[in-house]
Amino acid sequence: MSDTNLTNGNGKLETSDDQNGVIQPLLSDYYQITMAYAYWKSRKHAERAVFDLYFRKNPFQGEFTIFAGLEECLKFIHNFSYSEKDVEYLRKLLPVHTESEFFNYLSHLNTNEVEVYAIDEGMVVFPKVPLLRLEGPLAVVQLLETTLLTLVNYASLVATNAARFRLAVGPKKGLLEFGLRRAQGPDGGLSASRYCYMGGFDATSNLLAGKLFGIPVKGTHAHAYVSSFNGLEDVRDKVCFDWLADLLSGLVDWLVAGLVELADCETSKVELAAFISYGLAFPDDFLCLIDTYSVIKSGLPNFCAVSLALIEAGYVPLGVRLDSGDLAYLSVIVRQSFMKIADEYNRPAFEKLTIVASNDINEETVHSLNHQGHCIDSFGIGTHLVTCQKQPALGCVYKLAEVNGKPRIKLSEDVEKVTMPGKKLAYRLYGVDGHALVDLMAQPNEEPILEGGKILCRHPFQESKRAHVTPKRVEPLYKCYYKDGKINQRLPTLNEIRQRAQESLSHIRMDHKRALNPTPYKVSVSGPLYNFMHDLWLENAPIGQLY
Amino acid sequence: MSDTNLTNGNGKLETSDDQNGVIQPLLSDYYQITMAYAYWKSRKHAERAVFDLYFRKNPFQGEFTIFAGLEECLKFIHNFSYSEKDVEYLRKLLPVHTESEFFNYLSHLNTNEVEVYAIDEGMVVFPKVPLLRLEGPLAVVQLLETTLLTLVNYASLVATNAARFRLAVGPKKGLLEFGLRRAQGPDGGLSASRYCYMGGFDATSNLLAGKLFGIPVKGTHAHAYVSSFNGLEDVRDKVCFDWLADLLSGLVDWLVAGLVELADCETSKVELAAFISYGLAFPDDFLCLIDTYSVIKSGLPNFCAVSLALIEAGYVPLGVRLDSGDLAYLSVIVRQSFMKIADEYNRPAFEKLTIVASNDINEETVHSLNHQGHCIDSFGIGTHLVTCQKQPALGCVYKLAEVNGKPRIKLSEDVEKVTMPGKKLAYRLYGVDGHALVDLMAQPNEEPILEGGKILCRHPFQESKRAHVTPKRVEPLYKCYYKDGKINQRLPTLNEIRQRAQESLSHIRMDHKRALNPTPYKVSVSGPLYNFMHDLWLENAPIGQLY
């Protein structure tokens, strides 16, 4: 991905450990507490339970998802304990009949007996394959439910959305996240910046995300900057920048004379004053929003005039931003003008100027721009990125798979909603060309899944759908991330996860990733898991209902 | 609104002052800092600027919006100052040419010279009428932009969505917000709970929102609770609750015999065990999810059996939740069964049992349920409420209206995007029946708008659209909320704002509020403001472009 040429800072990359916001255990649903109490009351609270966290359907009519939010989940689990004030609040909240001893139990609760098995953050993931498996005392793992769902759902959704934009624009274009003002409040905006970067964006406009997560921060000015000026009388630093004062009067004429397309332009003196002042402030980071009046008749010539002056003075201007109008057409005209100036006036810096486009861009807009042809270098994306307008929620669920070693199945008339019972391992099987062939779930006590072996992969629900696969490479998907009260893997940096996402995507065939009617990627179960699941299903399903 | 009968806590109401999360000034876009520097560099930073924060279009194809987020805006403005670490971060981020003195300026920045005029939080508001007007030093009010937009956008959007659900279900039904797991991360979920309550919901499932904002917290159990049981052997508290142990064996038969509809039912013993255990834990707050197996063949008889036992023991059960299937049909069957038991077994408590429905309910589902007829008392709403699926962003903007007493207008080829120049006052004019007739913007130096006077109201852009209005009551919409570094109005509690929202909505005609094709509410300008605006428009618009 390109290091886009927007006005860039020197924000050095720090690890995301800088974020010290601890998520409170009360950030959860009331029913978890009522269930915990009922478990405790039935003396079931310490039974060893296994829960799977997974989603049933990829978002955005796509066929892949980027898994994000793991680090936040682990930190939440690690810090999980109720403060005295929390317990006091719960004591007031729960019915008066609630036994006092339960609150004592709550105030000593911790996650020392919880184990977390998870897929690495940033990996491409698919429906039905658990992203996280939690094992631990029934009441404790139940209490973690909503917070884990909250932390994974939006993070994975927006990272996936970002990855789709990256696929749409290609690896060389710049992608800038602009979404803070349209997010679900302050922290929604922070999450958006963090996980959009993880999914493949290059930078954010959100300063706090820059500070907390070390994400590169970029941006230029807004229309208000231009309209705050009265005219050239507002340019006050003439003395310091004699070179600019000298050039000022003749510049526009000089420029106009050289450019056929720009004849008859009525450049705005207000805009020129604003650009000059901006150039005085950012002589080496000069990037202007050129559509306040008219891109072609005012913004472009004004920008070129000031840029030529900056080049005269030894600086290198950066480029322009378009925020309205026909972005394909305007970007082509702007690029042509830049190339003509570079050529006719021998100013090679003009060849390298960046064109940034914004204005309510969504994934379809990008595909349409690609189809029309355009000269945009970087895209600024806000609303559609952070709100995930096309599908604003990923429906992750948290389902009980086992209690005290006994498998649990939740039946449903909708076959897609039947849960996979018991503890499961998961593998990604790769073919000789390096592409992933299939994800396979199996039981822990099965024969190991080996590279080069002939492996039966079955559709989880449709008996007749099965195939033999001989993988060149077998990747076990789970690691134990948490045990004995400790996070027991090194947590990668945000940049490492971002690279992993692109690496993982590179192993997925293009037809699974395309925007329109992608081929579904296959998720399978082993023969033994298939039989185990279907036996349990038949055992639990009532007989005698007409299907 | 009803106090819904979901398992309820005793959460005493506290003021929202308990929330001590201070929003950091870096939660803003980079371009605001670059603009601030460019203003400072041109010595324009202290010029007195006026900015309007408003939206251009009501959300959800509706014709009204609830204004929310003001308290958070005021607290943000009040606390606005850069820490040493913030300034240090910005120093690294901005280009090396940036003058050092600017960072000194930033580190001493405060909002003592900022004035904020705003509409009361919770009021019904309409497009184009500024919700907030900020006056102060150009650089300072510019730096506040993104954070204010972030705080108002989602808060107002989700409060409006909540108010629409309230209109759809009517004043007597219960509305419970369930959205935490589908929100944009932890704080997105907190904002959702707060502003859904403000917009007319009765309760949330989010414990932290309950603790921080004093919102009533409700909920029951999930499917996992039921499927964690093996069977009746799991019921362990028989000794403590002899009455239940005695009734246990014969209960289901007894019930089934009495209910024609429930003949042939194969009740799940697993579910029965779960319900008994839940009843033991919550004998006076007994509310069960009854669709784990089959509502009619298992959940309903199991619930009735345990409820009858609880009534025998002197307790009062609460009701059931339906989370799948045909909610209209099932709710009717469940209600009929309850009424029959109440009647035939002389158990009047059964007449008062609550039926709660959930399962991906959106506004259209509610209208469809109303149309079909149903017996639901309370709705649990999650995803569609908090993500605002139908329109996940409200497009608030922050536009420059005046600098140093000189009006500013931003032109656009889209007439809806032309800004209203200068400082404006706003009034709501009411008719004799108490309904709001029109919102009117006027200039501060005009003749006062008086009750009983004949007032010319003009369409802001269409010359021929104007009318004389004689209001029975004139409500000035702005108060000065912030001046001299102080919030100078008492901030109402969340409950007061929630009441204001309903009160304000009650003055809006039903045809403006209906879900389908509502009548647009009129927003007008005074004659003098109309002329002022159009003179400035002509003065600034380039001549000679073909329209």
TrEMBL record, chains A, B:
Annotated metabolic or biological route of this protein: Cofactor biosynthesis; NAD(+) biosynthesis; nicotinate D-ribonucleotide from nicotinate: step 1/1
Keywords: Ligase, Phosphoprotein, Pyridine nucleotide biosynthesis, Transferase
A Pfam family per the record: NAPRTase_N
EC number: 6.3.4.21
Record-annotated Nicotinate phosphoribosyltransferase C-terminal domain positions: 423-532
Domain Nicotinate/nicotinamide phosphoribosyltransferase stretches: 318-419
Reactions this protein catalyses: 5-phospho-alpha-D-ribose 1-diphosphate + nicotinate + ATP + H2O = nicotinate beta-D-ribonucleotide + ADP + phosphate + diphosphate
Post-translational modification, as annotated: Transiently phosphorylated on a His residue during the reaction cycle. Phosphorylation strongly increases the affinity for substrates and increases the rate of nicotinate D-ribonucleotide production. Dephosphorylation regenerates the low-affinity form of the enzyme, leading to product release.
Signal sequence, renumbered to the chain: none
Gene Ontology cellular-component terms listed: cytosol
GO BP term (any one): NAD+ biosynthetic process via the salvage pathway
Protein task: Catalyzes the first step in the biosynthesis of NAD from nicotinic acid, the ATP-dependent synthesis of beta-nicotinate D-ribonucleotide from nicotinate and 5-phospho-D-ribose 1-phosphate. Helps prevent cellular oxidative stress via its role in NAD biosynthesis.
Official protein name in the record: Nicotinate phosphoribosyltransferase
Taxon lineage: Eukaryota, Metazoa, Spiralia, Lophotrochozoa, Annelida
